[in-house]
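Lab notebook: predicted structure, single chain.

Context: the supervisor wants predicted structures on file for every construct in the current expression panel, including those that have not yet been purified. This is the next one on the list. No modifications to the sequence; it matches the entry in the shared construct table.
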Amino acid sequence: MGLNFDSLSKLQAQKIILHSQKVPPPKYRGRAIEATLSVIEHLGYVQIDTISAIQRAHHHTLWNRNPRYQIKHLHQLMEAKKVFEYWSHAAAYLPVSHYRFSLIRKQSIAREEQGHWYPRDKQMMKYVLDRIKNEGPLMARDFEHNGKKTSDWGSKPAKIALEYLFMQGELMVPNRVNFHKVYDLTERVLPEEIDVSTPTQEEYARFLIIQYLSANGLGQVGEITYLIKNVKPFVARVLQDMLDEGEVIQVSVGENNYYTLLSSLDLLNKPLSRNKLKILSPFDNLLIQRKRMQVLFDFDYQIECYVPEAKRKYGYFSLPVLWDGKLVARIDCKAERKKSVLHIKHLVLEFALSKTGEFAYALIQEIIPFMRFNECKTIVLHRVTPSDLKKEIEGLIKNALA
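Prediction complete. Output recorded below exactly as produced.
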């Protein structure tokens, strides 16, 4: 058996993970939109989120890996049929080059092996599908009724039917209007040259393994199969085969064992831009598995927008801050776009962060571009913990904006 077993320090593991996640970002050559597509293809997905306290998570995650990212890129890539919307562990943008690997979930839902959130109304599904076939792309609001109609087919049942048809692959989303989905037939959305053959179980497992390890550096079976149903035993078996063949190796970090690609260990020889600070989305690919972040980065993180206000410790939309190769702070932000003001409601430094002066300088180098990314022109700092840093940071912000 291929027992190629090595031990990594936590710092080494963190370095491999950050390089694999491309934060801080490398330099991309060529057009900015091509860099955006390259990021999506490398990560495998970018989670879509509706919260707009700052720029939405899908934009934020891409901007952190491509400083030339523009909000219009995703729309342009959708129009060019380079990315598509579907499900990873949650709603996401995925590269069209990975389309065939979405078929496993779609076919399982179509066969009713997997459910969705609501009961399946086949009559409604046929009704909305027939309308789209005949009328072209439609939105959920196109199925609303006025008060004179007595039919039970209101907007909510139609929306559920649309989502079922979307999840089982008969409909796709060619674009959005004001963040609302437009639905059309899959055959009218997919590029003709895309491979639509269904992967075998082994192909699918290998895809999940290689995609995850390429984008995340290190992984366990539970992390590779995070929120993907009915694949864990098979992925574990294929991983063992790949280990035996030397396609992956096993490493230990403290008391925990991980799989990695041999090429990922080469990242230990690549310098990490430790002085570059990044303000991350709560739904960033790096952070989405909270237990993993606690184990590997000693960072216990919970997004508090789902926590009652009285119980919040850090703030409604507190963003993790990456600096010096570690997660060292949280910053609760709100973009008041009508007044062009970025509010920093609460900046909280981790207790272990001792180089506060260097951190403050690095924060200012990033907070100004972050302000502009959020369509703001000035910053108001409300609260800092520890409080004695507030005056220093306010002064640095003032000088940077002067």
